[in-house]
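Predict the 3D structure for this chain.
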Amino acid sequence: MSAAPLKILITNAWLDGRGGTESVVRDLAIGFLRRGHRPIVYSPHLGAAAQELHACGVAVISDLSQMGEAPDVIHGHHYVQTVEAILHFPEVPVVSMIHAWTFYQEKAPQFPQVYRYLAVDQAVRDRLVHIEGADPARVEVLLNAVDLARIPSRPRPLANRPLSALAFTKNKAQIPILQAACDRAGVKLELLGLGAGRVVAAPEEELVRHDLVFATARMALEALCAGCAVVVCDARGLAGMVTPATLPRLRDLNFGLRSLTGRVTGEAIAAELARYNPADAELVTAQVRKAASLEGTLDRLETLYREAITAFAAEAPDEAQRRAAMLSFLTETLPRRRADSRWPWIAEREGLLAEIRDLDEQLAQARRGPPPDGDA
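Done. Predicted structure below.
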């Protein structure tokens, strides 16, 4: 007898753009829907990404009070939104997924309801364990995955030498260097991503048209799954061409920060273009598609969800621990100091109020008129 379908609440800070976590939410929600589960997606900022999910039959909400029944499990992305879900459904276990080495919104929610923290690579795991103090027994590395069903067939095989390249990036500082190197090599370079000021709903449809892609992190993984040769680089640094030999290490590092040890220079990019090998690229693609398929991630998440539900049914978190976690969250999150960098509007408000008081005094003085002779 198959296991009962789950009601899975997925949180995200925003669903009005086309960034990395929006893509993860989309893939998870649609993937779980295909498996017969009932995903519900919560974000206070809805837009194009939310509309895409709604069109597929996924319930998308901007207010947790809209939910008429509690979920079986919470899959949390982003600090504040995950805590909102925890406070709204205090008896529901949580699996929290952390995607970045930096950024406040990727902070780990330290609540006893969190059964497992999932880090997308070893760097993120180190942030959770060594910087934020998460229990190592509750932290697991779960590498990024790609929904292969979304990737269309390539219109043509990879060329013998790169004819068309794509810079798929959140950054822009490296683009002039990439453009100059491609121009010298006779490679046509196109741009895609936030750094290029060009974001599309289905980047995989563009990826399959190119021989080579410059990208990092999830963008690099998507490009590999789309059959492209990939040079891992962005404004932070260069890791180089993904080859059968370098793939295991780069995959473990999420094609991200810790792999970007080289400098992005014209000479370095020219050397990477010279390393282009379509046979190597095809071998890498086959290996990546086998290891990074979304189906394996969904399998692991389903296992974790059911483990969490069973564990919480046997022993719910201690109420004193919940209260302590709540107090810690409020102390961490609510504004308490005027110069708090997370709440810049506080200092701005104080400055505006002082300016208003000064203007009011000037206006009052003008209405009183000049002082009588001899009073100056």
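The chain has 13 helices and twelve strands.
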